[in-house]
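[09:14] KT: can someone run the structure on this one? pasting the chain below
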Amino acid sequence: MTDNKFLTAAAAIAIAAAGHATSVSAAQPVKNVVLVHGAFADGSGWRGVYDQLTRRGYKVTIVQNPLTSLDDDVAATNRALDRQDGPTILVGHSWGGTVITEAGIHANVAGLVYVSALSPDAGETTGQQYEGFAPASEFVIDKADDGFGFVSPEKFKAGFAHDVSDEDAAFMRDSQVPINLEVFGTKLKNAAWRTKPSWAVIATEDKAFDQAMLIHMAERIKAKITKVSASHALFMTQPKVVADTIDEAAKTIQSKAN
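[09:31] RB: done, structure tokens below
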């Protein structure tokens, strides 16, 4: 009986929280940011962006994606979004762009920022975004027997983070979070960029994607584009540029709401 009462109370709290999430008004100050990392990395790479934004008064939450499926990563992102107390800028790097495209329909999301990130449409797969563009010859993925992928250790610095120190690149290489490669064949159900304003930061020396592919994706979603000389690891090496773009997104949305 006690357990049932506890479960009933927990359910009531969850329903109340959900109701609060859906009641958020864009007229409230946009002071929340949720950061979503991509494949082969974890949330710690956002530390520089986090420091930049918190110094400017933002409340910043960093998602730790399991990288086991699109549904799992979206669920992790939604858990973070549920905890926000007002309009939120949702930011994704690389694979994280696919995640924010699906999760960005959440009521708390006021705008999207794509950091050298993927942005499929509803009904498309992530893998389809590569079609018609030059392959990333320096970004080599080794597939394990269980279907998970790692960036080749021999190619990691050149392909992922050529502008990172040798020591930091080695740590990133050896602390990789593998991704289930089946995620690239999962069709999206939603495309938040169709209803939420978008911004894009593109690394001009990104070896994970063809430049034409990054520009095509950003232009298709009508994102305001900022280019910066950086590797695929621009979320680490260019924290001020990324933070400035997030800040611009928040202020633009706020000004239009007033």
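[09:33] KT: thanks! Residues 2-22 form the longest helix (21 residues).
[09:34] RB: yep, looked fine to me
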